[in-house]
């Protein structure tokens, strides 16, 4: 990351990372596909139940994934400075934080699961299934978060293929367990939830074993698994604002999910099915954001500020190219893809509205994600978080409370996505121009 050409190294880092996220989403989509095809008359309610939980699960998981980004930056910066002791402390601290945070989140999630679903106006025919799925998923949060933190540790060292291999292995298991629990044992959402937790436990175990065996600076020794206060502070200083940014983003989506739920089971099922396709393009653009953060973090640690600026430009250019290619490949087959999850014509038609709207709006997502990733690579994490709260949450909440009631349709809800993303992209560009990290931090980078 710190020497030689950059343009070819960014895709080598980003594309396996995107493939990992997409593969994970495909295996999650398998949950919906299985229950949408093997639960008989319950299929629409079951799909809606899983879909209703996506924003709630995103709230919790994204908070900790954001914190894991703090570990990514902290470790990458220490690698750039060639400080092996700091790397080791941060790695072991991150793993313990993941486990403790997962247990805390699981306990809290179990306590608030039912009230949250009630606030979201979940229909009576969907509520019992949604609550069952959510409780099982929350119980598995310790292993789910452990996998995400372990993957962040590997990313900080420039390694994105090992998490991909681990996820591929556990994902195949997830699909097999889905079919076994639902098609063979005739379970419903509880079957796919259990399969998800078990497969995440396998992927976390695989990555832990790889961290134990690796000869890189991120090697893990069980006897050193403890929290180093200094490392934890650095991780939280960068990661907590990033986590809150993701969490606030999810809060806005929860409000939107509530509005979607008010339109009925068909719309809920359609929105959930579309989400599982549209997220593919988001995963691609987000991989370039994480590449920007990691490349900038290591080069900042090494004092190579000009290289940091080159990383930003290349991540934007290559990210736009990859995103455009993905949209051109996926969107023409949108309706057939939606029918995999639910072949109800109403569900497919409504889902396609979301698919077109969100995928084309992801150009704005790419801009603000890469720009915020650039700032986080320099350790600047609070301004992106605050601006996301304003641009995403502020616009979306205002829209749902003031615009949607005047015209309560699915199209009205969808219109807020491109608007809020465009506003956030402009705010993030302003933040980069105002902060000018490449001018403010050269002395720190060289130190």
Explain what you see.
The protein has 447 residues and is mostly helical. It has one domain (9-439). It is built from 16 helices and no strands. It has helices at 9-38, 43-80, 84-119, 127-139, 141-156, 161-184, 189-213, 229-261, 265-301, 305-330, 334-341, 345-377, 382-403, 410-435, 437-440, 442-446. It is globular and about 60 Å long. The protein starts with 8 loop residues before the first helix and ends with a helix.
Q: How would you describe this structure in keywords?
A:
447 residues; mainly alpha; 84% helix
Share of residues in helices: over 70%
The helix tally amounts to 16
- pLDDT averaged over residues: 88
| Radius of gyration, CA atoms, in whole angstroms | 21 Å
How many angstroms separate the termini? 19 Å
Low-confidence segments, ≥5 residues, pLDDT <50?
A: 443-447
Reported for the largest beta sheet, the result is:
none
Multimeric state of these chains? single chain
Structural topology:
Layout: H1 9-38, H2 43-80, H3 84-119, H4 127-139, H5 141-156, H6 161-184, H7 189-213, H8 229-261, H9 265-301, H10 305-330, H11 334-341, H12 345-377, H13 382-403, H14 410-435, H15 437-440, H16 442-446
Brief characterization of the structure:
This protein is 84% helix and 0% strand. The protein has 447 residues and is mostly helical. It has one domain.
